[in-house]
Design brief:
The structure holds two protein chains of two kinds. Chain A is an alpha+beta fold. Chain A is built from 18 helices and eleven strands. Classes of the chains: A alpha+beta, B alpha+beta.
Amino acid sequence: MVLCAALRAQAPDSVSHTQKEEPAKSLLAVERYELENGMRVLLLPLKRAPIVSCRLFYQTGSVHEHAGNTGIAHLLEHEMFKGTEKIASNELWELYESHGGTGLNAFTSSLMTAYFVTLPADRLELFFWLESDRMRNAVLREFDSELAVVREERRMRYDDSPTGRYFETLNATFWEGHPYRNPTIGWPSDIAQLKKEQAEEHFRRFYKPSNAILVLVGDFDPARARELAARYFAPIPPGEKLPDLSFREPVQVGPKRFAQYKDDATPRVDLLFHTPGLGHPDLYALDVAEGVLNGRTGRLYRDLVEGKRIATSASAGNAVQKWESSFELSASIRPGADAKAVEEALWDEIRRLQFEEIDPRELEKVKTQLIATNWRRLRDMEHLATQLAFFEMNGDWTLVTRFAEEVAKVTPAEVREAALRYLKVSNSTTGTILPASESPDAVWTVAPGAEKKAGEEAARETETAEKREAAHE
Amino acid sequence: MNRIPTVLARAALCCAFLLAASCAPKRAAAPAVPDHPSKLSWPAFSFEPPADAEHRVQLPRGAVAWFVESDELPLITLKAWFREEGRPSDTSEIGAHALLAGQMRRGGTADLTPAAVDDSLENNAVSAGLSVGANHATLSLDALDSKFAGALPLLRDLAVSPRIDPERLELARASALQGIAHRYDKPAAVSRDLASAVMRGFGHPGLWRAESADVASATREGILALSKNRFSPDGMLLAVSGRFDRAEMKRLLSEWIESWPEPGGRRAELPELPLRENPGIHLLDYDSEQAHVRIAQPFVKRPHPDYYATSVASYILGEGGFTSRLVSSVRSREGLAYSVYSYAGSSYFERATSGAALQTKAASAGKAVALVFAEMKRLAAEGPSEDELRRAVEGTIASLPSLFDSPENTAEALLVNELYGRSPDHYGLYAQELRKVTAEDVKRVAALYFAPEKMAVTIVGPAKEVLPSLRAELPGLPVKNWTLENLRRRTEP
């Protein structure tokens, strides 16, 4: 408290022209419209440098997969670089790069598949040509070798990562039925059997204008961008109307647990809770709860790391997704500390949120941080373009700019109510990584000599207990 | 709010490539769409990088700043560079050095406890950073424009009068010891340290990674001693961007720099780290699915006449994404690797290395390395095609504007010219230098710096699967066997 005042006291006059602490209007002047075929277009002219960040998002990912074809959306993303009827394999990459394209890549997540590049401003038409051609005429070449590449990617990201299989299993434990449980990379046995026909069918179904969002951020003339969108994408048939995902995660009926026992990963505890999908007003209160828990002045660090000294790090995350979301608390267990004590300490902090109203100063700190963080996210053009596409796909791009005002409205009572509503034992999934020696299997698979030793140990303990009881008698 | 999930996202995001990675308008009559993008026409590429003189501001005590103003967001960012060596010079310093930057940033100041510093910064949404790198140290500040001026004195105090709080030191020590215990959980981390050991040896304390004993024995006094005179304001370089008035910012920073205490003398410059050729296979047996392969030889220290030609050669060999020869061969044609690339290291402070890297299933290691060697030899023997050379040069030049895609990046891009001793017009000259590179140049430097016979090939993976593939594909290459104990004990096999 004293220091906060100290920092203010040290402050000379502001160095800014203007005292109004909000973004310039030009930064938020997004133009959104739809082509007649349903393709959504978001345009944000910004004159920072003579470049344009270009994004084309398709609303498809591992939520559109099932056991047997997991990984198909991601494999198709790889295959989309193998050319079209007019373009040779990898020629798209070559064309972008030879014209100064940077940040060229693609990704697949549970909900979306994104293709992106940043181009010199006067080469913008190249993006329209290549992406509209790829949407219509993709040819899935070199399928078997690309399948092998994806298997290498899986080995690298999951099988050789100390926590790769842990998070994959935790995810599938948390989501009982929702396709969020599908790993985007695909289960190993599915990847091994994916067929080109499956990828072609996925392409035919989902790579259509009515399922796509185009975003441009940078130095361009909006009239010219509209003309290019009309010329290149408007003639493409809209594609079949895709129904919204109707599946909803069943209400959890009791706490779930998953533990992995291994020595080649830092021991940890994760607590996960189901929360509503993007747009639900409770999520802003959970954003504030996240802020109260995080940071060096946050409750998790102060209690688990500094106070009880049972964790080396601890954090919370309000992880928002389209249909349903999760609120997560995590801690790395300090060597020598008890995992149960760490788990209990996380629960203690949840109970504090549920039964004590956060004080006004803490609330003010969190709101200031959330708003500043949100503005910082708008600094990077590529990130801003991705954010616009992400929120548009989730229903409303204006959440990028409305976030600050929504957070500002949150009251301490709302944070408490949200914590009570969602952060419940019956709604929780607990994951832990613990040393191999603590595995139940380790107890039952000891060597014969050790077994005998363990037996002797147990006999001694029984004997001691009997003596203690006798002493009491 | 994390708009993309955190814990669960680790199981849910995959990329195509890893890089070393309604108001519907009325349709107007428009030109026809050409049947191939090569028929699209563009104006000749022309780009004037931001002029140094428009942004350079002289400050007291020889400090220089680059100001890039922008009203877009109510934020101001400052990053300051200090030309100071950041490596331990003695074995006794290794543990203290490993904890130094973290404790300067997190351990409070002479006047303020660590908790008071955290409170002050977090309550005002100010982000402050402090780093001690091998060749320079940095301070950074990212604040709302209304909080920026108030945070500057604290940033100075972190650098010149750190408290190194004993309680915080113990917390950091526990965390560091846990990190060291799990340092080699990932094969990629083993691969990085093995490559360093193979190329540079263990002959200099600056190359030693802190082990548990080093961190356990580090003292507060040792860290305090290392912190002295590390951040001298004389000659400080600053990149400042965001919403501010130029004259007012100049006045504010001038006062700030004048407020720094006189330094007690600069730290001694350390000799360059050793670098050697160490050809052959260096294998570390490790329980993993993939073999992690790094291939390296000594390269040059910039500025050097071969640098530009070698960067073009590397682009053609394996840096140019899917169009490069290594990606075409090892990834697209053979499906052996998700990530494969070449590189020509860039350093103005010491000699860098050139080489390649990839990960592949263990049994394919020999085949993948053989393919990389074959492509290196082919480039040295045949040189690039005219088209490859044009794409590498013009593509790189056309990507220059992306260096200046935000006020923060623009300010830093201008500053590093000074830090590296380059011309203020470096980005203009860069294009000229690249355009001078000929196919013959590429051929010549490929033979010099992508030479399989000079390459140390480090492989981390299961030996029982890796070795047969090496014997089959690269017979006759000597294999030296390393262990994790070699890395931990700083000994060569």
